[in-house]
Design brief:
- The radius of gyration is 22 Å and the shape is extended.
- The N and C termini lie far apart (64 Å).
- Strand 1 and strand 2 form a beta hairpin.
- It contains four helices and four strands; from the N terminus they run ααααββββ.
- It is α+β, with helices and mostly antiparallel strands.
């Protein structure tokens, strides 16, 4: 009987650990997924620019504000739910959104997310799908519109 009891305890401990580790998503923890890498052949065909003068420039504080707003607007691993599955899938993708950043003061940033539903091939009118976040220089969300 002792052997059976020890086996049951070991099984329960093992299963409890497995459930806790696999259930991290349910506990609000997020597992980082590294970006997929192209093949070396594809990488060899890339010509890097000599200048970024014509590029979009975001300062470190602006990038931090965007990250804070992104995590609040669409937390990692979250999915939009709704009656229209195609629309919900569309609104769950970052590729759907255009993002604007405005910095009216040194310590305040406005980050706007605006959905471009037509990118998903849908012809649907969507009201109130975007948002504007006011983020301060401390990385706090001050207000949401």
């Amino acid at each position: 009987m002792r052997y059976g009891r020890a086996m049951r305890q070991a099984f329960l401990v093992t299963m409890s650990g497995a459930v806790l580790l696999s259930g991290c998503g349910f506990l609000g923890l997020y597992r980082f997924h590294a970006a997929e890498r192209a093949s070396p052949e594809e990488a060899a065909r890339v010509d890097f620019p000599n200048s970024f003068e014509q590029g979009v420039h975001l300062s470190g504080p602006r990038m931090a504000a965007v990250k804070v707003a992104m995590d609040a607007f669409m937390p990692p691993g979250s999915r939009v739910k709704g009656d229209n599955e195609q629309l919900a899938e569309c609104l769950s993708k970052w590729e759907t959104y255009d993002v604007s950043v405005l910095q009216p003061k040194e310590d305040l940033f406005f980050v706007r997310f605006f959905p471009m539903i037509e990118r998903c091939g849908l012809d649907v009118m969507v009201l109130d799908a975007g948002a504007v976040y006011a983020v301060d220089a401390k990385g706090r969300i001050v207000a949401i519109q």
